[in-house]
Each structure stands twice: as C-alpha cells, then as structure tokens.
C-alpha cells in the first residue's frame, strides 16, 4: 500500500530558497510584478505549512493564471517572443508552489526550475551569470535530494553537501560531452525571438546618435591580433558604410539596391594580411566590425560591395569570427558609373550655404586632393569645438547651422558636414560608422573596444588611389584619434557621466583597473572557448586530439573518460571506511572474539560479552579461566574509564594474543 | 512465467534469515520520474540545438551526467545494508501479524529512505543515518489458513538521492508467522463433568479469594504480579488465588466426535481461550500431543501452537 509521499520540511525550505535564487539572474529582464507573484506564492505556501491558510481552490488558481496572462500582455504587448515566454515560465513556476502538496508536484516544480536556468542562457552567457546559474543547479539539486530524505524536520545543509558532491562529480563528464557531442545546425527555425533592444550602432545615423552611444561604458567587441597590434590611430573598425543621405539621416545602401554585378567586393589581394579574431557582444544587428579591406574565412560571413562584413542572421549571442585585412590594399581603383552616381547624390535643397561654400572651394582648387585639404583646414582653423554635448540642430538645413553658427559637434557632425561638402564639390564621398581605437588589455593582449569608442568618419574616392580614409575629427581634436575619447573630452568632464558605477571610471585606481582587466581577460577566454565553440572549432579540436574524426576512437575516449571519473567515485562511495573508527580496546576485543570463533564459538550479534564468555567457557573448557579474565579486563577497561591506561592496554593485548 | 521468475529470484537471492545487499541482490532501473526527467532533457537538448546555445548544451549535459552519477549514488545507498529477521508474532486468522526486522549497516555509510514492505501490506520508510542498527516492525494480515504463514519476499526499495532511479531488492527472510485456528464457540463443553477426575468443576464460592504469594515464574500473567511489593523493593512476586488450584480441565480431541478436523480445532481453541481468560488450569490432548494442565501465557501459547500445527509439519521454528 503506497501512501502519497510527503514533502519534508527541510525540502520545502530548500525549494523556496531555490525559487528565489532562480529568479535572481532574470530580475533585470522581467517586470517587477513577477517578483510580487513570487513573494505572494512563497508567503501563501509558508502559511499553508503553518496551517493558517489552505491551498488555493481552483477558481482562485484560475484567476491567478488569467491575471498572469493579462499582466504579460500588458507588459510586453504580445505573448510571442522569448521574454514573455520566460515571464510566463517564471509565473508558472511560482504558481506551482501553490499546488505543492506531494512529492510528485515537487518533481514538476524542480524540473521546471532546470528549464528556468536554461532560459537564462538564451539572454546572457556572461561568466558571472553562468557561475550564478551553476549555483542554481546545485540549489535545485539540493532541493531534490532534500525531498528524498524523509523525516528531516529541521532545516539542515546535509542535502546541499550531497548535491554539491554530485554536481562536482558530474562536471568533468559534462566537459567531455560538451566538447565531443556533435554540433548540428538548428532543426527548425526558432519562432521565439528575443525582443531585446538593438544595441550599439544603429543602421541610421543622424547628428547626435554617436554622441549618445559614447556615453556607454559597455564592451562592443574584443579583438585578438595574431601578430603585433597596430597603433591606435590605425584602428578604424568599419561597421557600416553609409552612402545615402535622406532627411538629414545617413544610411547604408540595401543589398538589393546595388546592381547584381556589383554586389560582391572585388578581390584585392596584395601583400601580407593582418589576421585577427573578433568576439562581438550581441547587437541584434547583422553587420560585423573589421579593419579595412576585410575578408573572413568563416562560413556564413559575407562581404559587401563596400568592403565590409555582414552576416545574414542577426547577432543574438556572443559571436566569434576570424578576419584577414589588407589595410594597404586599394579599394575600387576604378569607380563604376552607378557607384559614382550613388556616392555623389545629395538632396537638392538642403544646406544651401554649405554647398555654396563647397562650390567656391572647388572652384579654387586644382584637384580633389586640394579640396579635401582645404575643407579639413577649415575645421582646423575656425573655432570648431569637439564635444560630447553638442547643441541641438534645426531640422531644416542642420549642417548649415552647424558649420556657420554653433560650430560645436561630435564626430558624426564633422563626418556628415565633410561628406556633404565633398559631394557638393563633386568628389565621391561617404560616411563610415564604426569604432575607433580600443583599449589594449596588458593581461592577454586583446583590444577591448567599448561603446564610447563609437566613431564616424569619411571615405573619399580619388582617381588612381581608390577610396581613402579621411577623418575630419582629427582636424578638430587630434587627441581623440591618438589617445581616445577620455583624453579628448577631459576638460569637459562628461566621460561616462551617466554611469557612475562603471569600473572604467575608476581606471585611475590601480587595483580596480587590475581587477577589471583580469576579469576582462577571463571573459575573453571564456567567450573564445565556451561561447564561441561551434562545429568548426570542434572539428579542429578533434583533428588535434585524435588526428581525425573516427567513431571508434571517439567511443573509446568517451568510455575511457567516463570510467576515469566514475570508477574513483564508485570506489569512494562503496569502500568508504568507518568514519569513527573503533577504539584500540574494541579492536583487541574483536580480535579475541575472532580467535574464539576459530575454535567454533562465534559471537552472535547483540550477545553481551558476559553471555558470550559463558557460552565460550562451556565449549572450550580448557580456556575457561583465560576467557573469564579477558572478558573481565575488557569490561573493566571499557566501562571503568581505564582505557587511557597504556600499560593496562598493553597487558590486555598480550593476554589476547596468548589465546589460542 | 511467474514461477520461472520466482525460481530465478530464488537462485539469485536464496532465502536466509540474514541478507546483506550486494550487486547480486540489488536491481536498479530509472524510475518513472527518471523517465520524465529524460524527456525534459530531450526538450532541453532541442532548445540547445535550435538556439545554437553552447551553455544550454552544457546544462543539458550536466544534468545528464548528474543522472549517470546518480546511478552510483542510488546503488551505494542500498549496498552494504544488512537485513535480519528478528521474529514474527502469532496471530489469529484475518488479523495483522507483527513482523520484526532489523536493519544494520556494515560500514559507517548512510542508508537513507529505505522503503520496506510486503505486497498488500503497509510500507514503512527507514533511515539508517545516525545509528548502526534499527529495529523495524511491519504488520501484515495473515490470511485464513491456520499453520505457518509466509509473507513471501520482502521488497526493499529506495530512490535516494535524486528519485530518478529506483533501486530495489526482493529478499526472503524465512520469516513465518504462526496462525492459530479460528476460535469457534460451541454451546458447552460436552462431557466436561465426566472428564474431570476430582469433580471440581463446580465453581467454588469466592473463587478470586486471595491465597498467598509465590515467586514470579516466566509466563505468569502480568495482571497477577504484585506490583506494590516490587515498588517497595521486594522480589517480583505473583498473587495466587485459591480457586486456581482446584480446577483442571482436559480439552480432548475426543470431546467432539464426528466433527471435521478444522472445526474440532476451532472449538478447542475457543475453550482454551475461555479457560485462559478465567484463569483456570487446562490441559490438551490431541492425537500424538499431550500437554498437562497448567495456566499462564506461556501455557496458552503452547496449547494454541499445538492446535495450530496439528497435522502439519513443524519446520522447527
């Protein structure tokens, strides 16, 4: 007859504990009311335990579930998508607590808990988050162990010890499977997309966009060069090439707007390439960052006609890719008619003063190179100011206002004004958006590029040279290019003004900076080994380990490594020695019993020494006196507190040895 | 099929009064919860593949290997456990007999949440965590048949620590409970007067008159113990009543001629209990067995045992 299994009190405490640590990493993502649901559910369940309240009846449960659905609809406007699904899962997780009466309910709850951990990884794969999730796995497992220890009525940590030991034993096996399990592509397209906001550069650029981005201390991507790191002034990370100006906003040409014959970049292969790998933080966008003239050996990364890299799928997770760049290569030595038209197009009416100025400069200049030099000289000689807080520009003719009135701007103002003037002067030009510079981490020699390194500059096309880079900002604030944003706006004091807690602000404190750089190096290693692990890296790894993918070696390795871990675990579990060993006296007495047993008198379990002695005396009469003496000594030593007496113990040992 | 399975189990785990669980005697298989867990892992693996998320792969593999490690832990929780038959108390047909078992551990290892039970009986759960041995009582209805009742194989089961695997064993502890004949009233005891040698069947006036003390002998009724004396520090003594000595009755097989065996035994059983309740002395005469008149619990048990085992083989327990 099987009674329903109850939930021990200890398990209930661990379950509620796990419930709250599980929601912890999700906190920033879910609406606040989900936390209120958690508190309500936990309080209710504790009240049920104390007998004050009863389990909710079905109308109340139904009302709770319905209100959760309504709440999610109100918070997210839709039920489809990753975030609403996670919020729903978390709410269901809390409500299940209100049904937690028997052990089988707890199973559902705890397995749901493992799912909640999994969903966290779909949003963040940060090292600290992963450690927190590992702790959550241990906690859920602890609750599972506590569930199987009947009669544990007090909160105790014994199940936690067991669960920790088990998870630690499972970890090495997990690593084997992680590196060897074949990675295959998605089985079907995932209908649940994250609603996470796009971060970093946007695909449209109007004055003020880049300066907004430059307030953030987040990491945009990390780069590891195979050889020397090029100087700061050469690190122009091209992301978007913007050739179209419409309503004061720059944007890139669409793939399908480019004629079919010009969609692929012309191969420009001369000289030694610069090899490096990039790990990008998720942007939910499609373009990648690279130095100029880039190509990638990775599958699934394409090159656009304006010599930048992109990926057909948005970057939703940390993304690792390899790049080779030829910084000296000429881009488009000959410009097609279509391309020339596209790179000279200007809205007809906008910014008349700027265009007039450009026209007069062009009339004086002998060649396009002189036009470029004169416009840059204009920025340099007139009182232009480089600032993170430029004044707002009017919607009509903003560049006229910038060039002739405010004269305060960030890189996108200078780039935009420069390109407009170039185009007005008849020189093909375009805006390039991306990042400039980066911080070299001395710990592992990676270049960390932050959001505040966001930058915009220009490219102009010159006969015989192709596209060359011109950075108007360097004419106004050369220190921005040489030493980065922080130095360039040091007087203004606006660097990371909105993030008072960013460790980047405390770079001057040596210890903080050291910790930050070490953690960043760890993050890089983590991202390149775990997060960036894919079918290709797996194939390379297998090549290196086994010299090829061979099913037999594969199976042998898995079996071997499992045995290597499981055999010691099994031995430690099954051959565990007595933890509180017998005293020397007891050992001697058992020796004595063993000697008598050889003569045919085995001591029965639970038989007292006196009773055993009587029985032994009857069957081995010749030793009757000795048996009596030894038993007497034993009892005296054991119960009269004389066991500490070394001499007496030695006498006893001698007496035992003489039996036989 | 069933008997073939039973033969196989008998060969594998031969009946014994004491069984230590080891790899021959322990079976292990995923429990229903474990299968459900496997299903969950499959869904998680699908999520990992479809989202191309390495850490989801990692979590799925961690939980899978946790399951693998749990096999060892679940097995280790059972192995090394010794179970010993202690006793089985006699019972009347249809009643619950008490079976006492002792659980012992060989090494100082914990054995948690061991469920013990016979099919059809109430299950008990035992923890062997702080102590080295544990006495456990189980109750089981014994059926209608008098004689030795065998409860069959005892199921020992545990799914500690994760509940994903079920580890079990079937042990036969050679534990038999004695089932007495069902007491069956008859209107009167025929030929009672003729049988009594001294004609003392007529009750003496004031039959519970106090007569004196004598030293306690094993089997004396607890009701007759002179507790006050014991409290004063005297020896354990029993109060004696005058009426006892004068009455002695023979319960004879031949008192119920013509009746079938079981009915005769049932009537004899009834009368034995009746006399015992009154505190009278009574003896038993069965073909091949004679028990001289006496009284007390020990005597009653001897008589009932003789009645229960009449015509049956005594396996010597």
UniProtKB/TrEMBL annotation, chain A:
The keyword Ligase does not apply. It comes from the Bacteria. Signal peptide: none annotated. Residues 403-474 form the Transglutaminase-like domain. The keyword Transmembrane helix applies. Pfam families: DUF4129, TgpA_N, Transglut_core. Keywords: Membrane, Transmembrane, Transmembrane helix. This is DUF3488 domain-containing protein.
């Amino acid at each position: 007859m099987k009674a329903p299994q109850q939930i021990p009190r200890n398990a209930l405490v661990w379950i509620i504990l796990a419930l709250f640590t599980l929601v912890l990493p999700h906190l920033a993502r879910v609406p606040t009311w989900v936390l209120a649901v958690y508190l309500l559910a936990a309080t209710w369940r504790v009240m049920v335990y104390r007998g004050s309240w009863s389990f909710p009846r079905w109308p109340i449960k139904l009302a709770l579930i319905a209100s959760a659905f309504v709440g999610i609809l109100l918070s997210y406007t839709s039920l489809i998508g990753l975030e609403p699904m996670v919020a729903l899962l978390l709410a269901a997780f809390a409500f299940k607590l209100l049904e937690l009466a028997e052990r089988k309910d707890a199973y559902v709850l705890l397995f749901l808990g493992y799912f909640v951990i999994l969903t966290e990884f779909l949003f963040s794969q940060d090292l600290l988050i992963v450690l927190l999730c590992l702790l959550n796995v241990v906690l859920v497992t602890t609750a599972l162990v506590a569930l199987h220890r009947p009669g544990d009525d007090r909160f105790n940590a014994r199940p936690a010890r067991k669960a920790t030991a088990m998870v630690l034993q499972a970890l090495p096996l997990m690593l084997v499977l992680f590196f060897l399990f074949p990675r295959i592509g998605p089985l079907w397209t995932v209908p649940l997309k994250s609603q996470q906001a796009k971060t970093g550069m946007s695909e449209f650029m109007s004055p003020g966009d880049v300066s907004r981005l430059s307030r953030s201390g987040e990491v945009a991507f990390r780069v590891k060069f195979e050889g020397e790191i090029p100087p700061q002034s050469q690190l122009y990370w091209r992301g978007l090439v913007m050739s179209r100006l419409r309503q004061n906003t720059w944007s890139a040409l669409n793939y399908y707007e480019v004629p079919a014959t010009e969609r692929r970049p012309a191969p420009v292969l001369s000289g030694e390439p610069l090899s490096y790998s990039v790990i990008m933080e998720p942007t939910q966008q499609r373009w990648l960052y690279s130095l100029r003239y880039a190509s990638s050996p990775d599958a699934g990364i394409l090159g656009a006609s304006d010599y930048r890299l992109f990926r057909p799928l948005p970057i939703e997770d940390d993304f690792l890719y390899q790049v080779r760049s030829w910084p000296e290569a000429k881009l488009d030595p000959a410009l097609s008619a279509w391309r020339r038209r596209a790179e000279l197009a200007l809205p007809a009416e906008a910014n008349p003063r700027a265009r007039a100025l450009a026209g007069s400069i062009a009339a004086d200049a002998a060649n396009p190179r002189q036009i470029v030099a004169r416009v840059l000289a204009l920025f340099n000689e007139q009182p232009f100011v480089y600032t993170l807080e430029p004044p707002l520009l009017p919607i009509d003719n903003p560049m006229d206002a910038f060039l002739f009135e405010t004269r305060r701007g960030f890189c996108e103002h200078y780039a935009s004004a420069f390109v407009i003037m170039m185009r007005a002067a008849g020189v093909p030009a375009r805006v390039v958006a991306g990042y400039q510079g980066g911080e070299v981490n001395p710990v592992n020699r990676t270049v960390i590029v932050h959001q505040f390194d966001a930058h915009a500059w220009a490219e102009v096309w010159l006969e015989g040279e192709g596209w060359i880079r011109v950075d108007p900002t360097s004419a106004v604030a050369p220190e921005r290019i040489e030493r980065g944003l922080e130095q360039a706006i040091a007087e203004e004091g606006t660097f990371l003004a909105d993030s008072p807690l960013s460790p980047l602000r405390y770079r001057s404190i040596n210890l903080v900076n050291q910790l930050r750089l070490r953690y960043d190096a760890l993050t890089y290693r983590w991202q390149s080994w775990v997060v960036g692990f894919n079918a290709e890296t797996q194939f390379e790894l297998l090549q290196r380990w086994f010299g090829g993918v061979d099913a037999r070696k594969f199976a042998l390795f898995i079996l071997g490594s499992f045995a290597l871990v499981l055999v010691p675990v099994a031995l430690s579990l099954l051959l565990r020695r007595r933890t509180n060993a017998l005293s020397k006296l007891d050992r001697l007495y058992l020796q004595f019993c063993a000697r008598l047993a050889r003569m045919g008198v085995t001591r029965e379990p639970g038989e007292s020494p006196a009773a055993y002695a009587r029985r032994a005396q009857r069957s081995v009469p010749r030793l009757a006196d000795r048996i009596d003496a030894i038993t007497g000594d034993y009892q005296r030593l054991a119960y009269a507190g004389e066991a500490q007496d070394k001499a007496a113990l030695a006498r006893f040992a001698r007496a035992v040895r003489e039996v036989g | 099929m069933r008997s073939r399975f039973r033969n196989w189990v008998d060969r594998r785990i031969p009946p014994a009064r004491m069984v230590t669980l080891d790899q021959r005697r322990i079976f292990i298989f995923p429990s229903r919860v474990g299968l459900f867990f496997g299903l969950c892992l499959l869904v998680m693996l699908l999520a990992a593949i479809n989202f191309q998320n390495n850490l989801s792969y990692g979590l799925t593999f961690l939980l899978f290997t946790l399951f693998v490690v749990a096999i060892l832990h679940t097995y280790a929780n059972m192995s090394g456990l010794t179970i010993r038959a202690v006793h089985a108390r006699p019972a009347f047909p249809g009643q619950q007999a008490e079976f006492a078992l002792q659980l012992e551990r060989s090494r100082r290892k914990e054995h948690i949440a061991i469920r013990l039970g016979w099919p059809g009986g109430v299950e008990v759960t035992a923890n062997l965590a702080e102590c080295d041995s544990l006495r456990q009582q189980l109750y089981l209805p014994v059926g209608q048949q008098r004689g030795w009742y065998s409860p069959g194989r005892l199921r020992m089961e545990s799914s500690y620590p994760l509940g994903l695997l079920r580890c079990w064993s079937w042990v036969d502890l050679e534990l038999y409970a004695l089932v007495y004949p069902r007491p069956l009233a008859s209107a009167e005891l025929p030929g009672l007067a003729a049988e009594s040698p001294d004609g003392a069947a007529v009750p003496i006036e004031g039959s519970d008159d106090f007569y004196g003390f004598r030293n306690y002998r094993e089997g004396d009724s607890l009701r007759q113990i002179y507790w006050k004396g014991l409290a004063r520090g005297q020896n354990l003594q029993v109060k004696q009543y005058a009426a006892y000595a004068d009455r002695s009755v023979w319960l004879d097989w031949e008192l119920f001629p013509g009746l079938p065996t079981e009915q005769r035994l049932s009537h004899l059983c009834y009368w034995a209990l009746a006399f015992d309740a009154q505190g009278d002395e009574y003896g038993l005469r069965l073909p091949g067995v004679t028990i001289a008149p006496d009284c007390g619990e020990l005597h009653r048990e001897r008589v009932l045992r003789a009645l229960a085992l009449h015509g049956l083989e005594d396996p010597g327990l």
